[in-house]
Write a structure and sequence with these properties.
Elements (H helix, E strand, L loop, with lengths): L10 H8 L7 E6 L9 E6 L2 E7 L7 H16 L18 E3 L2 E7 L10 H18 L19 H13 L10 H24 L8 E3 L8 E4 L2 E5 L6 E3 L1 H11 L17 H12 L6 H26 L1 E2 L2 E2 H17 L1 H8 L3
Helix pairs in contact: 3-6, 3-7, 4-5, 4-8, 5-8, 5-9, 6-7, 6-8, 8-9, 8-10
Length: about 350
């Protein structure tokens, strides 16, 4: 296990960035330990309210991508979708502060509670994702600012990343002594990913229309109150893709059985929460029957795709060694593929 230190603001940097905003008299500034450890955040209380300042992680700091994300957020805010509103700079011309290679964003702070893994919360999270898709259907893309592309389905980048794990990280501390099993594990996951992608394509996934999707719909990006999802707080991954990918990833994230060392995580999912999430989604934005047949395969792809980038960067996923995470992913994919038909029957509308 490795504990990765969180990126932080230094005092001089914070002073320069805050000078771009008109927040009035500041009362307090507190480090905010949520989300990516590579993206420092501080909570700010001033005479004008409560705010959250964020510095984008380097790989999420492409100016055009941030501008696109802000356009989507403003579109959603205009539709009264529940999200923290962007705070404009002092001159009112932009919601982005760029200083050298860094990009900063300020949001109004929304108070809420974390996910408690209940069926009602999972259903509410599905409903809110459906609302997101309903509102983004009318998003008018600016010809000068193209939406990002790329997702976790049938991705050459995911395949390359898996092979990179084997070829460049075999000597990493998390894999030491397990080099032969690492090679077998990577090949097993690569084959499972290929099979899941091919199965989803056989169900016609490539023929689905595209729209703006969130692509990071997980409990850490939603706030809850009284068993209801009340706000979505992260839009770094928004892009144009197929909405069933959002639904599948959300169903996975809100039904995961996890906690503690990944070696001890159960193989299965919480089927009640899985069904509740998709039922909530279906209530506002129905899917096609073949979409439900795609979903277990897309969940398997999402499991692989989620762990590859952090392992290729650091050898770990959060505080957990990459080798232990990959073994857990293999177990969960085996369970998903074994129970795919049951999951489809459980969720397909009659």
């Amino acid at each position: 296990m490795r504990n990765r230190s969180r990126a932080k603001f230094d005092a001089a940097e914070l002073g320069v960035v805050l000078s771009y905003y008109d927040l009035g008299v500041l009362e307090s500034i507190t480090e905010f330990h949520r989300g990516s450890s590579r993206s420092p955040k501080v909570g700010i209380v001033s005479e004008k309210g409560k705010f959250l300042l964020k510095r984008r992680a380097t790989d999420r700091a492409l100016p055009d991508r941030v501008r696109f994300s802000h356009r989507v957020q403003r579109h959603l805010a205009d539709a009264e979708f529940p999200l923290p509103k962007l705070v404009p700079t002092r001159d009112g011309d932009t919601t982005i502060v760029q200083i050298r290679e860094h990009i900063y964003e300020m949001f109004e702070f929304i108070a809420g509670q974390p996910y408690e893994r209940t069926v009602d919360e999972a259903r509410s999270a599905g409903e809110l994702l459906a609302r997101f898709h309903v509102h983004t259907r009318s998003f008018d893309e600016d010809g000068k600012l193209r939406s990002p592309r790329g997702d976790y389905h049938d991705s050459p980048g995911v395949r390359t990343g898996l092979l990179t794990i084997e070829s460049t990280l075999s000597s990493h501390e998390s894999f030491a002594g397990n080099e032969q099993e690492l090679s077998e594990l990577v090949q097993t996951l690569l084959l499972a990913y290929d099979r899941a992608a091919a199965a989803a394509n056989r169900f016609g996934l490539q023929d689905r229309n595209e729209r703006i999707v969130h692509l990071d719909w997980h409990p850490g990006n939603l706030l809850f109150k009284k068993q209801q999802a009340i706000a979505v707080i992260d839009y770094d991954s928004v892009r144009r893709s197929k909405r069933v990918l959002d639904a599948a990833n959300g169903a996975l994230q809100f039904s995961m059985l996890a906690g503690g060392d990944p070696v001890t995580w159960p193989d299965d999912l919480d089927v009640e929460r899985y069904a509740a999430f998709l039922s909530g989604y279906e209530s506002l934005a129905p899917l096609r029957e073949k979409d439900y047949e795609c979903i277990p395969n897309l969940m398997a792809e999402a499991l692989v795709a989620e762990c590859v980038p952090p392992i290729t960067r650091t050898g770990s996923v959060g505080r957990w060694a990459g080798y232990r995470v990959l073994r857990m992913v293999r177990r969960k994919i085996n369970w998903l593929m074994t129970h795919a038909s049951e999951l489809v029957l459980r969720t397909t509308p009659k």
